[in-house]
Amino acid sequence: MKIALLAGDGIGPEIMAQARRVLDALELPGLELIEAEVGGTAYRNHGHPLPGETLASARDADAVLFGAVGDPECDNLERHLRPEQAILGLRSNLGLFANLRPATMFPGLENMSGLKPEIARQIDVLIVRELNGDVYFGEKAMRVLEDGRRQGYDVMSYAEDEVRRIAHVAFRAAQGRGGKLCSVDKANVLETSQLWRDVVTETHADYPDVELSHMYVDNAAMQMVRNPGQFDVIVTGNLFGDILSDQASMCVGSIGLLASASLGERQTEYGTFGMYEPIHGSAPDIAGQGKANPMAMILSLAMLLRHSLGREEDALRIEKAIAATLEAGVLGGDLGGSAGTAEIGDAVLERL
Ligand code: NAD
Ligand code: IPM
Ligand code: MN
């Protein structure tokens, strides 16, 4: 079993170190770890945020564990050299089109949510975000119009097969959970969304046991705060899914808690090839201070073990250790506590 470890920038290496301790503690037989540089760090050392060698290591592994990328000092580079291009390049080059972002309340954390505890307690949603299309990957440019004004544009589009394959993933996920799927779009304004809605509705014919609903994204953002308990599985495009998942994280209590899996079609000897990462970024404001919450990173490792390595029991062990750590009140600054990155790692290991 091969795992590529891409720690990245900012808090990436700090939280990766804690995930690494958890992985080591599991003592998986025959495990090979390959570390590679990515993001601003890779740009500085190799002139590119996603060096060919890093992409090759990722491709060659059974799974990729990814920290975070992003560096304020790189924000004015040409776009193709910015750290964020590394993550987009990995997702598209590896065909990882299905991004699973679960947001579930942890017992004892209801009071840390931005919502009232009785509302927060009900949150148990899986956001299925399409990851290889949408306005992220359309034609884009900054240009000067004939009258001299500057204009920026980014083309939003989805082809029907791109929508269909993510719809299948979401319907199957709903079958394995509460049997409810809510498709989020902006079909009242966007043609891209109208196609999305049509194709999701067509695909529903294969899943009569799933209850399908559609919601406009502005309403969905409101409903996520008003009554998140109404959602079971949400399926949505790349941009809306990015935004709604950060929002869902605060319903749970902190962005430092939400993990994700990015999957495609490739099967390995042990499961589905995938890349696993926290939904948050490199948090430059707290980087290097030992303050970052490593839980999203450690929970991403649990997802890796489940989906790519077929080790459900190890995944559950990790998830239980995290829940027990939170329940014991070992909280990082993001949750109003004072535990540092390594201290949280210690507490999780103790309970593992
Ligand atoms: P961010 O998620 O990095 O940080 C937002 C806020 O949340 C900050 O106040 C940060 O301190 C806090 N935060 C995030 N993760 C935390 C953790 N584990 N523990 C405690 N607090 C945490 O978002 P941003 O500030 O908008 O972006 C910073 C950089 O990260 C940018 O360059 C951005 O492009 C990049 N980014 C990368 C990814 C990724 O690698 N997957 C995701 C989002 C943003
Ligand atoms: C995420 C991030 C990325 C995204 C950025 C860094 C490209 O925000 O993984 O949520 O927008 O997908
Ligand atoms: Mn995001």
TrEMBL record:
Binding positions (Mg(2+)): 218, 242, 246
Cofactor(s), by name: Mg(2+); Mn(2+)
Binding note for cofactor: Binds 1 Mg(2+) or Mn(2+) ion per subunit.
Keywords on record: Amino-acid biosynthesis, Branched-chain amino acid biosynthesis, Cytoplasm, Leucine biosynthesis, Magnesium, Manganese, Metal-binding, NAD, Oxidoreductase
Pfam families: Iso_dh
Family affiliation: Belongs to the isocitrate and isopropylmalate dehydrogenases family. LeuB type 1 subfamily.
Name under which the protein is recorded: 3-isopropylmalate dehydrogenase
Species classification: Bacteria, Pseudomonadati, Pseudomonadota, Alphaproteobacteria, Sphingomonadales
Gene label: leuB
